[in-house]
Write a structure and sequence with these properties.
Blueprint (H helix, E strand, L loop, with lengths): L1 H7 L10 E5 L5 E6 L4 E2 L5 E2 L1 H8 L5 E7 L7 E6 L1 H4 L5 H20 L10 E3 L19 H17 L4 E3 L3
Length: 170
């Protein structure tokens, strides 16, 4: 079936998987995200959320991250805190330290991003994303559409607050 073969293979014989990747210094392919995960900001620039999520996930502060921003001037991130960090939030001083660390994480990540990819803010959400609540797949991959659907009613308000780190209200 030559026509079907042309649909699934590139001209040089590689399988079209829908994955995005990069070749490292050793010549090895590293998968960096999915082509279909791209979204366009209101400025008309495409953003690959997986690359940005990987930057943020370097920190042990965060357990899960989802970068959003379709139709907004800049992308932004939603995240859940790691279990060890969540236990400290009752103490106001510890919470302030966590917020400062998150601001530093956001600033450092933005230094590695192109202007159109820089995150406007990071919102820490209360609810953990789990298979049971439909926010992640059985292999624990974030379901971007489910997360955007759950939190989209807050996006504009969070964007308008003009603060680097936000906490989902109770």
């Amino acid at each position: 079936a030559p026509e079907l073969t042309r649909e699934v293979l590139t001209p040089d014989g590689f399988l079209r998987t829908g994955d995005r990747g990069e070749i490292d210094e050793n010549g090895l392919l590293r998968i960096t995200g999915r082509v279909k995960d791209l979204f366009k900001t209101s400025k008309g620039k495409y953003v690959s959320p997986a690359l940005i999520e990987n930057l943020l996930m370097r920190s042990p502060l965060l357990e899960q991250v989802c970068v959003c921003g379709l139709g907004f001037p800049q992308p932004f991130a939603l995240g859940t805190l790691g279990e060890a960090v969540r236990g400290k939030l009752a103490d106001p001083a510890a919470r302030a330290q966590v917020e400062t660390a998150l601001e530093t994480l956001l600033r450092d990540a933005n230094k590695e991003l192109e202007a159109h990819e820089k995150l406007q803010f990071l919102t820490i959400v209360r609810e953990e994303w789990q298979v049971e609540n439909g926010m992640v797949t059985p292999t624990l991959k974030v379901k971007r559409a489910a997360i955007e659907n759950r939190y989209s009613k807050f996006f504009q308000r969070w964007f308008d607050e003009q603060r680097p780190v936000l906490w989902e209200a109770a």
